[in-house]
Amino acid sequence: MVFIPRMPRSYFLNFRSHCEDVKKKMFYGANRLIFENAKYLRNHVTNVEMIFWGRLKERFFNHKFRRQHPLSNYIADFYCHKLKLVVELDGSIHHIRDVQQRDKERETIIKSFGIHVIRFTNDDIKLRIESCLEIIESFIQGSTSRGGSLLPL
Predict the structure, then answer these.
(1) Is the dihedral of CA 36, 77, 70, 110 positive or negative?
(2) Domains of the chain: which residue ranges?
(3) What is the reported pLDDT for 75?
(4) Which residue has the higher pLDDT, 6 or 97?
(5) Could you give phi then psi for residue 78, rounded to 5 degrees?
(6) What is the pLDDT of residue 120?
(7) Under 8 Å CB-to-CB from 16, ≥6 apart: which residues?
(8) Are residues 113 and 27 in contact, defined by beta-carbon separation less than 8 angstroms?
(9) What is d(CA 16, CA 31) in angstroms, rounded to the nearest whole number?
(10) DSSP states of 98-148
(11) Which positions ≥6 away from 39 have C-beta within 8 Å?
């Protein structure tokens, strides 16, 4: 029989508080509706997202990327909190001028959190997925060579 010491109640309260702080920092104040929309998007994945997600997990297995991750009032296609990196995949709707303007505004706000944003089109993923993964790898290598400082490239 192994004796496991009883943890003081304060340990659990501190741990719970720590977890809540991490959630606030990781999600930048996203509300319940954003979380619901993110869940819907995770359950309704496009073929391009599915292909990219598989390759992303395979190539960068030591970095935890999240799919359809809530960030404030937005949902990032792919997000790695440790790297402060968002990867966005843009379909044909992103060729529309109004959508491009909203993308710029959204990206500006996300960058204000100290998060770097890399964008690829669906055609980039379909035709040049290795090049896309190399761009992400270059960002990761650059971030570690800067001693963990994750300044934009």
Answers:
(1) negative
(2) 30-145
(3) 95
(4) 97
(5) -140, 140
(6) 96
(7) none
(8) no
(9) 19
(10) HHHHHHHHHHHHHHHTT-EEEEEEHHHHHHHHHHHHHHHHHHHHHHHHTTT
(11) 68
Give yes or no for residue 72 having a pLDDT over 90.
yes
pLDDT digits (tens, 9 = 90+) for 98-126: 888 999 999 999 999 999 999 999 999 99
How far is the C-alpha of 100 from the C-alpha of 104, rounded, in Å?
A: 6
Which of 103, 106, 119, 117 shows the shortest CA–CA distance to 72?
106
Q: Which helix (H) or strand (E) holds 79?
A: strand 74-80
Distance of CA 90 to the CA centre of its chain: 15
Give pLDDT, residue 19: 45
Q: Name the amino acid, one letter, at 78.
A: F
The DSSP symbol for 93 reads G
What single letter denotes the amino acid at residue 11?
Answer: Y
What is the helix (H) or strand (E) element at residue 69, kind and residue range? strand 65-71
User: What's the token pair of residue 33?
Assistant: 């509706």
Distance of CA 121 to the CA centre of its chain: 17
At 39 the three-state DSSP class reads: helix
Structure tokens belonging to residue 78? 């792919």
Here the tokens at position 53 are 């997600």
In three-state secondary structure terms, 55 is: helix
Under CATH, which number does the domain 30-145 receive? 3.40.960.10
